[in-house]
Design brief:
Length: 433
């Protein structure tokens, strides 16, 4: 969509709620609860952290809703940042998406797949890494070959994920309390790091807020769709964590490598663990495939805008596929699998790798709302953030705190991610020559 184009308002309120819920609830919720439990220190804090994640997400979604309706553009945050801070910051955002945010998300999902696939058929000490690398390579090849995934396939994969969640919630909440204590509990009480993991699971609403430009009766339905969808997501996340706490106990939950599988194993034995692991592994493949697909398209757009990356702006003439963008993306992703393997904590390392960069540009997006309000006061805004400037300032403060936490409390992965983004600065100056 060009700058002056107007989006078509085709989405009903129920359409918008369904889309947002579908985008946000990903495979991370099957992995992050164990990490949150390890940092929370108590059952009560676990519940409060997941509730706080829903509130922070709602605040951010309101800010993105104003940006998306006032500046409807397919570039999304790239466009807001360029309009607010210029091409330099926009370039670094695109560079960060290519090298850290999008590729890190692909690998993060791939490690979730590897952890649960290893519950079904372990491949040795590096089983999760083998599965992660294999899934990325195979799905990239499928996309390059142009074998289109049918809509029914993606829907089935999403249904498997939802089925798994509902099953775990029901069985966990109805299970007898688990009194077994993990042999090596890892409870630390680091709430800042816990919130990094919580908000990873809430991630995706920032993409979903873009549909606010296409909702019917915008002034009435934007707020309803955001509040309703994030309310549903928060309720589901609270219930799944209560199920884990009830069925496993805090220490066992914190020590788990595949928390849903461990819960099902405690209730149904190995049959239950294999069943839920299969559901999660299959649904995660769908998320990996979608992220690979969209990531390559983002890189293609970068190649069109900046001459230095023009090689990514080429497509195969036969089937219009951005093959160079796919190949660069898979190369970066496989390198990140190696990083996760070396640190012996693949999923957590990818959270560390992506979090500081993600929250930096999230913070800048929030600031762009304030900048554009001041610089362009006469732009028509179909939806305005309520209680301005309190809500945007609260969002920026939250992002700043999460940026601080992701830098201070994370491991070597965070340092690598920051260095990779910093490496984009000389490329920016080279591109300007």
């Amino acid at each position: 969509m060009n700058e002056g184009g107007k989006p078509k308002r085709l989405l009903t309120l129920s359409d918008a709620v369904a889309l947002i819920v579908g985008i946000v609830i990903g495979s991370g919720i099957f992995q992050t609860p164990a990490l949150v439990a390890a940092e929370a220190g108590s059952n009560t804090v676990v519940v409060l952290l997941w509730l706080a994640g829903g509130l922070v997400s709602l605040v951010g979604a309101l800010c993105y809703a104003e940006l998306a309706t006032a500046y409807p553009n397919v570039g999304g945050a790239y466009y807001y940042l360029k309009r607010s801070f210029g091409r330099g910051i926009a370039f670094l955002f695109a560079w960060a998406r290519m090298t850290v945010i999008q590729t890190g998300s692909i690998v993060l999902l791939a490690f979730v797949f590897g952890d649960y696939a290893s519950q079904i058929w372990p491949l040795g000490p590096f089983s999760s890494s083998f599965y992660a690398a294999g899934s990325i390579a195979i799905l990239t090849a499928v996309n390059i070959l142009g074998l289109a995934q049918g809509k029914w396939t993606q829907n089935w994969l999403s249904a498997a994920k939802v089925l798994g969640l509902l099953l775990v919630i029901f069985l966990g909440l109805t299970a007898l309390p688990n009194s077994t204590v993990a042999t090596e509990p890892r409870l630390s009480g680091n709430w800042g790091l816990a919130m990094v993991f919580v908000l990873l699971s809430y991630g995706g609403w920032n993409e979903a807020a873009y549909i606010s430009a296409e909702i019917q009766n915008q002034r009435r339905n934007i707020l309803r769709s955001l509040v309703g969808s994030i309310g549903i997501i928060t309720a589901i996340y609270l219930l799944i964590n209560l199920a884990y706490l009830q069925g496993l106990g805090l220490s066992n939950m914190a020590a788990s490598k595949a928390v849903a599988a461990d819960l099902m194993r405690s209730i149904w034995g190995e049959t239950g663990a294999v069943f839920i692991s299969l559901l999660i592994a299959v649904s995660t493949l769908g998320a990996i495939n979608a992220t690979i697909f969209t990531g390559a398209r983002t890189n293609y757009a970068l190649g069109e805008d900046f001459p230095l990356f023009s090689f990514m702006g080429r497509r195969q003439k036969e089937d219009n596929i951005p093959t160079p963008a796919f190949l660069l993306q898979v190369g970066i992703a496989l390198a990140l699998v190696i990083l996760g393997t070396v640190t012996r904590s693949g999923f957590k390392t990818m959270v560390d790798y992506t979090a500081p960069v993600f929250w930096l540009f999230f913070l800048l997006s929030g600031v762009s709302l304030l900048v554009l309000r001041i610089r362009e006061p006469h732009i028509y805004r179909p939806f305005c953030v309520p209680f301005y400037p309190v809500i945007p300032l609260l969002f920026c403060t939250s992002c700043g705190y999460l940026l601080y936490s992701s830098l201070v409390y994370t491991g070597v992965g965070a340092l690598v991610g920051v260095l990779v983004v910093t490496a984009g600065i000389p490329l920016l100056f080279w591109n300007r020559q």
